[in-house]
Amino acid sequence: MAAHTPHPTGTPEDLGRTPGLRERKKQQTRDALVQAAHVLFLGQGFSRTTVDEIASAVDVSQRTFFRYFANKDEVALAVMAEAEDYFIECLRHRPAEETPLQALRASIVKAWRDLGNARESGPGSITSALELMRMIEDAPTLLAAHLRRVTEQERIVVRVLAEREGLDPREDLRPAVLAAVFGSVLRAAHLSWTADREPEGPEGMITLIERHFDQLGPALTGHWRT
Amino acid sequence: MAAHTPHPTGTPEDLGRTPGLRERKKQQTRDALVQAAHVLFLGQGFSRTTVDEIASAVDVSQRTFFRYFANKDEVALAVMAEAEDYFIECLRHRPAEETPLQALRASIVKAWRDLGNARESGPGSITSALELMRMIEDAPTLLAAHLRRVTEQERIVVRVLAEREGLDPREDLRPAVLAAVFGSVLRAAHLSWTADREPEGPEGMITLIERHFDQLGPALTGHWRT
DNA sequence: GCAGATTATGTCAGTCGCTGACATTCGGCA
DNA sequence: TGCCGAATGTCAGCGACTGACATAATCTGC
Fold it and tell me: What phi and psi, each to the nearest 5 degrees, are found at residue A186?
């Protein structure tokens, strides 16, 4: 809103900083679409909200909506997508001394915590993402789309892990296996979250994730009956 | 076609064995739909096949198709659904001495092997299921639907494991975690299968699954660089 | 066998998600 | 100011899916 840059085409360091009016307006309508969709979804449910409603709430045509988002699912998952990207960023900057599993666990906890401390409310807030997760579970197509996104993220995790440890993911199966296991533990934690319906915020989610990670060893080894 | 039962309402043991003409015809058209869909999908791709085509190939109305299958994805995944059910059956009959992880691994191997040895070809054959898996990967909505099915299966696995070991899955997280890990290892193996494009049949898939399971321990523990 | 209750199926109209094609408007830039 | 390209609107259309109602087929008791 408050533009602090007087000259549109200014000093060299302005390159990429002030993206120009056109770019700003695009980002603006994109954010507006996400926000409007979010409000409508939480208000009246995902399936009972039509794309036309979202579009006309922002006063753009339906066609324009589909130029920003490939489908209705995408606008719903846009908020979570940011969080996922941030997690990847965290993973890339973990110290090399950590084991791969430690690095993954530390990254996801850091990602949740940072995002939780950052914006408290608004369209991109973490509480919004948590509300979204509840919604996902009872919208079949949305859940499906979300799972697909998760698997795409897993592929990235495989690549990052392989780079980090300096090995070829096609020869060594460990990156793929660990990425898959990591993703599945997270999903189990998420399911637990939506099922138990604990009202705590991001910190509640973090402890849930930690609890599930702690069960990884016990779940895999030996008999369970004492 | 050749009716060997002279009396429609026959002996007591006929109850549930001969489901009546109506029920038989239903099963018949259902099978025909699955088969026709399968042929069309593999021939011209999933997205380029319309429901109308499938329906008219079996000479029923589109509306009837949707009374058998909730959506286009479902008819594509119908074949794999049988295999999944059989796996659950295998898991239920594993000896109690095995650890949960051993039981899961043995069940999936047995399921693939039995189904591989059973019907060599036909609409419900295992080779069909393998062909399907290739198709799933490049049909976004289909992949999404498949992933959703997988998570539903995981919930069942959680229940079976909890019963088997006699504990409450809401208190003890191990069933949920192990089920999730198991599912993720399988998905990694499946991805590997579709990526490497090894032409071997069910046995190839089995060895792939075993190889991935063998990497579970190594992937989770310690550093990877020697 | 035969009415009458059930149940599967067909037909039709309609909604919604999504896409291609073309015209129009608006920001970027000389 | 005037041109270029990008963003948007409009329109027509396809395909997945659904509700409502009519029709035809099975099943049931007699």
Answer: -60, -45
CA A158 to CA B184: how far, in whole Å? 13
Q: Which amino acid is at B144?
A: A
- The span from the CA of A208 to the CA of A188, in Å, is 10
Tokens of B100: 């949960």
pLDDT in tens, A3-32: 333 333 333 333 445 678 789 999 999 999
Q: How confident is the model over B111-149, as pLDDT tens digits? A: 999 988 876 655 557 777 888 888 898 788 999 999 999
Query: How far, rounded to the nearest angstrom, does the alpha carbon of residue B102 sit from its chain's CA centroid?
Result: 20
| pLDDT tens, position by position, B82-122 | 889 999 999 999 999 999 999 999 999 999 999 888 766 55
Which residue in A has a C-alpha nearest to residue B169's C-alpha?
Answer: A192
pLDDT of amino acid B173? 93
CA atoms within 13 Å, Cβ hemisphere of A112: 18
Nearest residue to B48 (alpha-carbon basis) of B21, B72, B15: B72
Q: How far apart are CA A53 and CA B110, in angstroms?
A: 51
Instruction: Give the dihedral sign, CA B179/B180/B183/B184.
Output: negative
Residue that wins the pLDDT comparison between A79 and A36: A36
Q: Which of residues 96-155 of B touch A (CB under 8 A)?
A: 99-101, 140-141, 143-145, 147-148, 151
Q: Please check whether residue B195 is in contact with residue B138, taking contact to mean a CB–CB distance below 8 angstroms.
A: no
| Whether A112 contacts A186, CB under 8 Å | no
Residue A130 contacts residue A201 (beta carbons within 8 Å): yes
Within 10 angstroms of residue B48's Cβ, the number of other Cβ atoms is 10
> Which residue among A144, A166, A211 sits closest to B225, beta carbon to beta carbon?
A166
